[in-house]
Design a protein that fits this description.
Oligomer: single chain
Keywords: Coiled coil
CATH class of one domain: Alpha Beta
Number of strands: 8
Order of helices and strands: HHEHEHEEEEHEHEH
Largest sheet: 6 strands, mixed
Strand content: 15-25%
Radius of gyration: 37 Å
GO cellular component, one term: nucleus
Distance between the termini: 37 Å
Length: 283
């Protein structure tokens, strides 16, 4: 099973789990409400009809019974608050259906956002480009989806560079790839002349676009393009420029652009500025 198939199955499972949780929450809320489906029966009191009136001469005739007044039908009082009464089964089902539809619409919008195409310029650095290309790097353009993870984007770039020739391709036996090079994605820091972040492999392009500096401006600058390199190659050259200006991005931390500018001459690139941690994070 490929990673894309695995990711697709995982998203389907997450979708089903979300729907099941919504149904369970709705059923639980319905059980907790007071049962308003069975109104209490009120005992009806029968009014005694008054007896017949009689006069002195009872033998002549009996008086007719006095007229009775029919009980007045009670209408619904609009001023009474009946919100405490439980909802009937039909209303409960309609409410559950509405909540489920809201969840479906939300998941559908999320999927549309993930499928939205994204065009990225890239720079690829590796031991092969260092040896085979005049500028030691290869530049190109690739189209991905906003829902792609950093690892998926990096592998897509690596596959795109294989068009350069056999030397740029992984080892193959009988036309089957037997070696998969580990690659990683690097994104430039927004509003910074130098410095970049090594992006976690599971972070998506959508998540990257939502990250901000502590001052509120976008943290990542994707306009100039991304950088992709082989991990083994990076480990060999991380003490030199520009690799020395790359630092791993940590989602639990908040980064300050002001502090970075003040410390950029230290030669460490974007050192995580731990001015604060996000709620629930462990230092």
């Amino acid at each position: 099973m490929s990673k894309d198939d695995f990711k697709r199955q995982r998203e389907e499972l997450e979708h089903k789990e979300a729907l099941q949780k919504m149904r369970k929450a709705t059923e639980k809320a319905s059980e907790d409400r007071p049962d308003g489906d069975k109104p209490k029966k009120k005992a009806k009191k029968e009014k005694k009809r008054p007896g017949a009136l009689s006069f002195e001469d009872e033998l002549e005739a009996e008086a007719e019974p006095s007229p009775t007044i029919a009980p007045k039908k009670m209408g619904k009082c609009q001023d009474v608050n009946a919100s405490f009464l439980g909802k009937n089964e039909r209303e409960k089902e309609e409410e559950a259906a509405k909540q489920e539809q809201v969840l479906r619409d939300y998941l559908l919008e999320q999927q549309k956002a993930k499928d939205e195409p994204l065009t990225l310029a890239y720079t690829y650095r590796s031991e092969v480009t260092q040896r085979e290309l005049p500028n030691a790097v290869h530049k190109g353009i690739i189209e991905v989806k906003r829902g792609f993870t950093a690892e998926q984007v990096a592998r897509a770039v690596h596959l795109d560079t294989e068009r350069l020739g056999e030397k740029f391709q992984g080892k193959r036996v009988a036309g089957i790839r037997v070696e998969e090079r580990d690659v990683m994605l690097i994104a430039n820091a927004g509003e910074s002349p130098c410095g970049a972040f090594i992006i976690p492999p599971t972070m998506t392009m959508i998540e990257m676009s939502a990250v901000r500096w502590a001052e509120g401006t976008p943290l990542f600058e994707l306009g100039p393009g991304i950088i992709v390199t082989e991990m083994k190659y990076y480990e060999s050259w991380k003490h030199t420029y520009p690799y020395s200006h790359w630092n791993p991005y940590e989602s639990r931390l908040t980064y300050s652009h002001k502090e970075f500018i003040a410390n950029r001459n230290s030669g460490t690139g974007i050192d995580p500025v731990r001015i604060s941690t996000k709620p629930g994070a462990k230092r």
